[in-house]
């Protein structure tokens, strides 16, 4: 029986397989990006309403306006600080629990893994509502416990500093299970004879941690860190449900927890904000920033993949 050789005559078979996927990508991803870029070059700001397609192209005025705003850099810096602090504690808490669960003396490991993964499995809006109640200044259980111990009870969601601390705690609570699972898998892949040889040489726990564990966890830790930086940088719904970006100490200034996406939402949609072109320019700037982090993530992933070959 003669077999058909793949060639140009079968191009339609390939197109039938990848065509729907490519069409979906063009409609869902590429077209919105291109339209958003076009919008960022127009004067669609303020309360004026023109028929679709009748906006004037003003070039890069919105980008200049955005990048010369002190508010943008203040919010950007606050978001970077928030992401760095969160990811640091993601790693520390996740590694600590992974080390505990990986210890041979721990019994019921499957039960503890299931219990500790629950914060990651619960929908974020449910988590935000629960923690908003816990942080309530008057009736919240956290402040009631602090008062019973004779400790000061801060106004968590009404004070600028403590509101930032509160949203950081909630994000750590939601994300540490992800790091715990990733690092636990990495720990279980490390041969135990390495630790046995280190113990015979008189190495302490901390020496083994910094000389053996952390270097060998690098291939799994770095991708998780970069991916978490990307997702934390885009934090919106949890913070919005808890504080709506507040509290605000000065009128017209960003709130204490007004991260980048919340600031952009307030600029474009909340209150009197109707600066759609400015927000489109903001989206393009953030898009390229996150694209850089994504490329870094892909590069690190490829490097770590080669580390095992």
Automatic annotation (TrEMBL):
Biological process annotations from GO: transmembrane transport
Boundaries of every ABC transmembrane type-1 domain copy: 76-297
Keyword Ribosomal protein tagged: no
Topology class, membrane: Multi-pass membrane protein
Keyword Transport: yes
Transmembrane intervals: 12-34, 80-102, 114-134, 161-187, 208-233, 276-297
Pfam families: BPD_transp_1 (PF00528)
Chief location: membrane
PROSITE patterns documented for this protein: ABC_TM1
UniProt keyword list: Cell membrane, Membrane, Transmembrane, Transmembrane helix, Transport
InterPro entries in the record: ABC_transporter_permease, MetI-like, MetI-like_sf
Superkingdom, natural source: Bacteria
Subcellular location: Cell membrane
GO cellular component labels: plasma membrane
PANTHER family: ABC TRANSPORTER PERMEASE PROTEIN, DIACETYLCHITOBIOSE UPTAKE SYSTEM PERMEASE PROTEIN NGCF
Family: Belongs to the binding-protein-dependent transport system permease family.
Protein name per the record: Sugar ABC transporter permease
Lineage: Bacteria, Bacillati, Chloroflexota, Chloroflexia, Chloroflexales
């Amino acid at each position: 029986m003669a077999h058909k050789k793949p060639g140009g005559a079968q191009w339609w078979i390939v197109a039938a397989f990848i065509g729907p996927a490519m069409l979906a990508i063009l409609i869902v991803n590429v077209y919105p990006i291109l339209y958003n870029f076009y919008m960022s070059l127009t004067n669609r700001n303020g309360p004026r309403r023109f028929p679709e397609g009748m906006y004037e192209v003003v070039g890069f005025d919105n980008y200049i306006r955005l990048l010369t705003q002190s508010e943008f850099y203040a919010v950007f810096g606050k978001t970077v600080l928030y992401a760095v602090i969160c990811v640091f504690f993601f790693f520390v808490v996740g590694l600590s629990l992974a080390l505990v669960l990986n210890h041979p003396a721990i019994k019921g490991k499957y039960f503890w893994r299931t219990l500790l993964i629950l914060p990651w499995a619960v929908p974020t809006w449910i988590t935000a509502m629960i923690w908003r109640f816990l942080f309530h200044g008057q009736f919240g259980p956290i402040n009631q416990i602090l008062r019973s111990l004779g400790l000061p009870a801060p106004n968590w969601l009404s004070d600028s500093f403590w509101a930032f601390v509160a949203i950081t705690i909630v994000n750590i609570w939601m994300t540490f299970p992800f790091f715990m699972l990733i690092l636990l898998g990495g720990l279980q892949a490390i041969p135990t004879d390495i630790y046995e040889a280190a113990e015979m040489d008189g190495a302490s726990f901390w020496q083994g941690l910094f000389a053996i564990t952390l270097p060998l966890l690098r291939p799994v830790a770095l991708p998780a860190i970069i991916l978490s930086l990307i997702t934390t940088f885009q934090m919106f719904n949890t913070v919005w449900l808890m504080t709506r970006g507040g509290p605000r100490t000065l009128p017209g200034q960003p709130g204490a927890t007004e991260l980048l996406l919340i600031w952009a939402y307030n600029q474009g949609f909340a209150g009197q904000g109707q600066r759609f072109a400015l927000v489109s320019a903001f989206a393009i700037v953030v898009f390229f920033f996150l694209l850089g982090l994504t490329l870094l993530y892909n590069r690190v992933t490829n490097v770590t993949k080669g580390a095992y070959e």
